[in-house]
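Example with several molecule types.
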Amino acid sequence: MIPEIGHFALALAVAIALAQGVIGIFAPGLRDARAMRAAPALAISHFLAITAAFLALIYAGVVSDFTVENVADFSSSAVPLIYRITGTWGNHDGSMLLWCFILSLCGVTVAVFGGNLPASLRARVLGVLGLISGGFLLFTLSVSDPFIRIWPPPLDGAGVNPILQDPGLAFHPPVLYTGYVGFSVAFAFAIAALIEGRIDAAWGRWVRPWALISWCFLTSGIALGSWWSYYTLGWGGYWFWDPVENAALLPWLTGTALLHCAIVVEKREALKAWTVLLAIATFSLSLSGTFLVRSGILNSVHSFAAAPNQGLFILALLAITIGGSLLLFAVRAPALAASGFYAPLSRESALVLNNIFLCSITAVVFVGTLYPPFANLLFGIQLSVGAPFFNQTVLPLAAPLIIAMGIGPMMAWKRAALVPVLNRLWLAAGVALLVFLVMAANRHIIAALGLAGGAWVVLAALSDVAERVRLFHASPSVTFNRLLALPRAAIGATLGHIGFGVMVLGMAGMTLATQSVIVLKPGQSTMLGGYKWTLNDIHDAPGPNYSQRVADISVADNGKVFLNLHPSRRFFSAQKVITNDAAIHTNGFQDLYAVFADEPPGSGGAELRLNRHPLAPEIWFGGLIMALGGGISLSDRRLRVGAPSRLKKPAGAVA
Amino acid sequence: MRSRKQKRLFLVLACGICLSAATGLTLAAFSSTLTYFLSPGSVLAKKPAPGLEFRLGGVVQVGTVATTINHGSPTTAFRVTDGTASIPVTYTGVLPDLFREGQGIVAIGAMTTGGTFAADEVLAKHGSTYMPKDVEQALRKAGKWNPKFGPPPAADTWNTMPVKSTNS
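Resulting structure tokens for the full complex:
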């Protein structure tokens, strides 16, 4: 009964969403105030209907209702409760519903908190969101319905894919999707503005927080995913340039660009058309990223199983959304009058430069990701573009971006002078150069460049703050008061840059990683990374829905054992799958990583892969700091106060 | 004070430089890093030069997997087949969890002068019925399997199976 209610709620949501779309978009043109007021109400009921459907699906998962095909295929009674819940979106159909749920959540947020928006703009934004939602709900309902019943029901479900039975992955999709889908609001604002033909600073002040929220979630989502693949897949890597990863990276790159150029719209009312284009591009890349991987057009090492019959529907939806919005842009963009003058050497130009670099990187990653399917389609050759391609193209483009990242934030608006800025950066530049020379002397050129770049970004951001609070130039109390008085947006931006620098440090450290694959018998030991690793013992241990073999490894430094690692091999009898559970010990500055890969018959021992990863934790710390910086920036006074109220200089008060 | 035209010139110049740098980098990287996908049959037909990196895809032939341990490192030797031909492969290191006989895999590496494929990396995909897309295409080309007619036949029968004519 409950699944039928969910199914009905889903059908209801399609109807409401389409009504919201049509009314929202056409009511302002007809100057029908009542119809415009209907749009928020429709958005709320649209949200309620999808919530009902989503809860119904979760309920079916929780009570293990195996008459629902989705539950029977991807859950089982032995699965712990938490994974029965998260398993609802661990498969194609359920994740579609999650996607639509988050989209409607965005819509309802605009409807509820958008009271101070002009009524026509709000109606149009909700209309665009309604149309997108309607299209994808229709897809969910007609082609990938999660509520389909099967008869007779199986005695037990097929179970959750063991590799998905992990807290990191359970919360990865919702976070990542919130990031993807959040950009739909920036997109809807862009389309609404194109229809209205008017963009001003207030528009920028509305779009920026949305871009910022989505960017925070997308950053956390990508970091979570990377962390997950690092500790569960047991390959010891954090980024594989796999199409799925690139699909998330592309909107992140344009989203970062959008974040920066929305500042220019907000403060200086320049770069309007470009900002609109970026908002369209970011959401288009989010959409195509999510769905090209789904439709099986992009061939990925880890993705949902491809469902070719759904590909055409998705492609049509993508073509309408992306093509339609670009067409609208081409027709209406010239009407967006440019204003705001700036010199080639100014904060505006620095932000333009940031955008140019980020978009070049986007273009390169885009080409590398989509060339293989196109080559197959056009020339019938099968080829692949791997990590070497991306390393060779992205790194040279990232290097000038990293250098500019240190200088840009110190430039003044309108017109800046380079000499005083450089005067404040000699310390950061000196340290970076020193780091480079020390590492280069040890012949680690790539690591030297990376570490120097990371140090440069972190120190440049810190010297900016030090200058603003007059560190060492005023009494400590003055410095402290100035620090408290800094606008949170400035603190957030600084943290964002520091986080990126920390991440670069981590990636550079990973190039110095050492690894060895070795078969050890109990009692034998090996040397790696300056430590002595000894296999003490292999034993059996119980688990909730798997059995496992655990290797007991001790790590010694100069004869003193300081660590025991217990990597295991888990046997999931329901799916007949074996997973390797890596044991990772981190002290914040390096990871010791052990995988129990196999017990080769006849060897009497364990096949182990041992890794030492210097600075690896900094990759995810960096991501976390970046997302945190975005969050702090979001709590800035001027964003909380609301869009249409005129921006005043934040008074020295403690916010 | 600079004119609007000069400002625009600066923008166009910056975009142009970046765009051409991106294009140049892409083309240069394409020429050196693109890896082609070959099935065992096309390896024998095209005879890629030893040392040239490519991706070999097919199914691990049943009964051919043997692991030896040299200096503590495990080396696995097996044959990869697409039904028309099979190629010996060696790999040193940890094989993916799902590596087993009859499983579709993709190996990245190069041919040695001795006619063996030395793999640097072996990928196997999760899911018991999954077939890597490239491998599926190779099997279809070899006339061994059409996904329209159900799951693939057992891998050990492929080298002896008569080639069916398919309508794909």
